[in-house]
Amino acid sequence: MSPRGWKHWPSPAEFVFPASPAVAATTSTAQPLAAPRLSIVVLPFANLSSDPDQQYFADGITDDLMTDLSRISHTLVISRNTAFTYRNKPVDTKEIGRELGVRYVLEGSVRRLGNKVRVNAQLIDAETDSHLWAEQFDGDMGDLFALQNEIATRIAVALDMELVGAEAARRTDNPDAREYLLRGRAAYWKQQSREQQDETVALFERALALDPGSVEAQSELAAMLANRAMNGWSDSPEADVARAEGLVTKALAASPRSALAHYARSAVLGFQGRCDEAIPEYEAVLAPGDRNWVYVNALRLLARCKLLAGSFEEVISLCQESIRLSPRDPIIIIPLQQIGTVYLLQSRVDDAILWFEKARSAAPDPLHMAISPLPMLSRATQNAPPSHLPGQGASSATGVFRALLG
Known about the structure:
This protein is α/β, with parallel strands linked by helices. The chain has 18 helices and 6 strands. The model is unreliable at 1-30, 391-395 and 400-406 (pLDDT under 50).
């Protein structure tokens, strides 16, 4: 057990099971174990700097990544002791996958030049040796610990989504509840539309039908039903939200500390306009500090509730944190719009234009860009202290926003 209170799963190679005499007599060579879903080894990041003393920084990123990934639900991360046996050795990802019984390999490098550092990371499918994801991170070495933590966190958040997408693409003839959950999460990250949300709901319904007691299936379906209703894409929003409430009640009864169940409950409360009750639920999701897609979504939705409650000073910091952790997020338009909305309500029109232009650049669907902030403008001004709303308030802000859209 490490000082941070976590441990890695041992690799399949670290398990030793005595064979029965019959098996021993008929088996000449060991058969490779089937790699479980969401199984990964983080190889030691290579130090490409001229200074060998910088290896501690590369090792720190590797260690932090192992920690963050091991906290993602149902993810198997090979132990540090095993992973570090591959340091300074030629990398054959297929062989590593077979030896350790994992589906994915993460490798990377660190290069320092003066006070700047560049970190490269690549996610590889161990079965096919194909690259699934790659990213580059640049930073300032002024605060090494903060930089190490930020880079590791951003990689972990990105991998949470990438691994789900990769697993969802591995179709089987007889999918189980876990596969439908992964497919549903992958569908959620597609471009938002009525069809996309109907597809996501249907996949979570299949997962729940196969495992009615699953807290994850109950929570995922409840959150999605509330989200679909909030976006105006439900044929019967009240019925959907009523069902979501029932699912959340079951999930919390079975697992009171489930962050996903609290996330689902806050989504239901947010749709109902009960932001004063939703805010502590979102804060409960954020409290453990597990950096994953639920954490990033909770930041955005907490910002929405703070905006509707008129607490403008907190909205921008929450949105900026979500952007920092997931800068390539498929729905990054949401925090960009929220920041723009705050500035617009404060009559800081130049700042608002800057952020709405960023949102427009990020939005594949102009209609989504045009509609989503408008209902929040009037609701936010109803709750905001007068000192927070210079100028003409909601009516002026709405007019400016419509003008920006042309």
